[in-house]
Specification:
By secondary structure, this protein is α+β, with helices and mostly antiparallel strands. The protein is built from 4 helices and 5 strands, in the order αααβββββα.
Length: about 150
């Protein structure tokens, strides 16, 4: 199979080389005689131009008076907004909630724990999550069941 492909490629290579070396003028002449060949378009005739009037150069006083009038319009729009509604009131900044203390199952305070959801805390040092229950002023970690501890 591969031998047949190689033989065909060797047989066709001289004819492909001749096709690439043929003169471009011969192919161009043949394409122009064809009714479907593309024809070069003649450039369109020039259009008539009309005279253009140039506006006079503005003087600095004209520019200053125009700027003053624009500023007055902007100030008026700021005083009387188009919608007639006052701007939104800003909410006061509320301080973050104080974190509730977290205790282990023995009642000792645990540092480095952060409450992530109700009844869930995360140990920021290890990245583990623990279940909790409300206990007094904070949260108490619930010890995992004995089956989960591996006993």
């Amino acid at each position: 199979m591969k031998l047949n492909v190689i033989v065909w490629l060797l047989a066709l290579s001289p004819s492909l080389a001749l096709a690439q070396l043929s003169s471009p003028t011969a192919t161009r002449a043949a394409s122009q005689s064809s009714p479907t060949a593309t024809r070069q378009a003649s450039p369109p005739p020039p259009t008539e131009t009309r005279p253009v009037t140039v506006p006079p150069v503005s003087t600095p006083t004209d520019e200053a008076s125009r700027q003053a009038a624009e500023n007055a319009r902007v100030r008026e729009r700021l005083k009387n907004p188009a919608l007639g509604t006052p701007p939104a009131k800003r909410r006061p900044i509320t301080p973050p909630q104080t974190t509730r203390p977290i205790y282990n199952s023995a009642g000792q305070r645990m540092n480095g724990m952060r409450q992530v959801t109700p009844n869930r805390v995360m140990d920021t040092r290890t990245g583990r999550y623990y279940n909790t229950v409300p206990s007094g002023d904070g949260q108490r970690i619930v010890p995992p069941p004995a089956a989960a501890r591996g006993k």
